[in-house]
Specification:
The chain has 205 residues and is of the alpha/beta class. It has a seven-stranded parallel β-sheet with strand order 3-4-5-8-9-10-11. Strands 1-2 form a two-stranded antiparallel sheet. Helix content is 34%, strand content 23%.
Length: 205
């Protein structure tokens, strides 16, 4: 499988990523182990998960497979924070507290001391982008993640966070829905990412 540089960073990821949205819910441990082993055997490296997938069950299952099925050093772990569960469903919360608490929970479930790429899962109109960016920087400085990015953010939000992180570290990626049917990101997100040197990860491609 081909590898590609993630934007203007030195991080190289497989051209295809393995998503874990259904793990621990519709995908059981045996099927997940087969998927992960076959993916790595085929040259895949990027495994995408989130604290919200199965209310954390996807991360727990993935964590159980790291070691017995594939080595931690064989994969690049991408996870997300910024959406917390409540009795009524999910609430977007990209505050510094929620993001860092979410990341610590993800690390515990994954059984690792760091992830390779950490994303803010959704824009939070109630939290200033300056605060969200400060959480990204702290996660990097503390070694909890190697690279940071955004998920489902608009082009202007991507540009703003990128500028808040300057001169370093660089915003590595933006993850967006992008397919033959969903092409709205071509209007502003993709041009912004290209101009900023930010990598694009497509979900539901």
């Amino acid at each position: 499988m081909q590898e590609r540089s993630l934007g203007s960073t030195g991080l190289r990821v497989s051209a295809l990523g393995l998503g874990t949205l259904t793990w621990g819910r519709d995908t059981d441990a045996d099927d997940a182990a087969t998927l992960l082993r076959d993916f790595v055997d085929g040259g895949g490296t990027l495994v995408d998960t989130s604290a919200t997938y199965g209310d954390g069950a996807a991360e727990e299952l993935l964590g159980e497979l790291l070691g017995p099925v594939v080595g931690r050093d064989e994969v690049l772990l991408c996870t997300k924070a910024g959406v917390r569960r409540t009795g009524d469903g999910g609430v977007v919360d990209a505050s510094r507290r929620a993001l860092l608490d979410g990341l610590d929970g993800s690390l515990t479930r994954l059984g690792t001391d760091h992830v390779d790429l950490w994303l803010v899962q959704a824009p939070d109109p109630g939290t200033p982008l300056e605060e969200t960016a400060s959480a990204l920087r702290y996660a990097l400085d503390s070694g909890r993640t190697r690279y940071v990015g955004l998920s489902n953010h608009a082009g202007w939000q991507t540009a703003r966070v990128a500028s808040l992180l300057e001169p370093a570290p660089r915003l590595a990626a933006v993850e967006v829905e992008y397919s033959l049917l969903e092409r709205g990101v071509e209007r502003e997100v993709l041009p912004a990412a290209q101009a900023l040197g930010v990598g694009v990860l497509a979900w539901s491609p």
